[in-house]
# Entry
Amino acid sequence: MPSHYRGEGLRSTGRQTTQFYSQVAPSEVLQKDMATQLKSGHTAEPLSDEDSARILKDFPGQVDGLVRVQPGGWILPTPYLEMADKIYDFKFRESDVVVMTHPKCGTTWTQDLLWNMVHNPNIDNPAAEEAVNGRSPYLEVDILLMGKMKEMMLSDTSNPMLKQFAELCPGANPADGIGIQMAAATPGIRIIKSHLTFPLLPPDLLDTTKVVYVMRNPKDMCISYNHHCRMARFHDFQGNMDLFVDYLTNDELFYGPYWNHVKEGWKRRDHPRLYVLFFENLKADPVAEVRELDKFLGTDLTEEQMTKVIEHTSFDKMKARDAHFPVTEEMKKKILNQEVVQNEGGFFRKGQVGDFKNKLTPAQESKIDAWTKMNTEGMDIEFKYSI
# Structure
């Protein structure tokens, strides 16, 4: 077993006895209880030793390990167990807008678009220059910032995220959850991001607030997610595209299964507090989509304001600002693979529709097509693969 895995004992929580996770092997974490019951009614199950070892070999940054949450088969980092009940009990406000997506489906673009529609319609709010995930809290970010990663983040006293946390949450302990505490303390109309699925969030979510659920065609999502997993050190994917497509279609990537995530959003599409936004439609006709979002949000923007917001949140403008997370440039160098960033781009890579045509082989496309067909039978859903 790798030397960086060291168990740190048990911690008693309000549900069952579970582990406190910091650089602990997934097999060590859960083998005593074998499963952990969550307030949501779900059960978190350990992966087999064989699967854990295989995934760690291909994703060496995922040192905290993974659990599979049932029902649904959700794949999440083991530290999710420390945050699961807090997230399920989170108090949303009637004025909130939740941006919910599977990773790499247009999350950051939608966050920035909605935040500016609500808080910066005249493009004169100085806070707009701050990082998107500082203005629009990432509810469960801490499940990615555990172990070595969180220790590094908390040790950097110049970290803008920690400074913002101290201002918003005076006297609070960042070790208890940076994202969830910042979200709770954010004043006014909150634009809150989550990659979690509906069943893992508060059951009254749609009775309380509005949700914008963003979808993207699975082939472009795959390309973007592959880039992200090679770029981000907390994934550090080491394989080729063939292997990544296998992980995707076998439902073994963070926050997956992708199609279960999509189905949870799609089956609620007629709820008056849910707006289903397709990445491809926003890319093809941002004016039309922003008009519909304006009605949904009740922001009552003028045509001039909509034009300004669309221009300000265009991909090129967002890429030029390159403000995703509120961290220092030095910290970016530590948490992002700089070779990938320099050669292929950072968090803002291309933002295109149809780029998969330049990246996927016919065999890889066929595998994704077969996986898509199997999972969308009877769904009455259609994705665009070009615009």
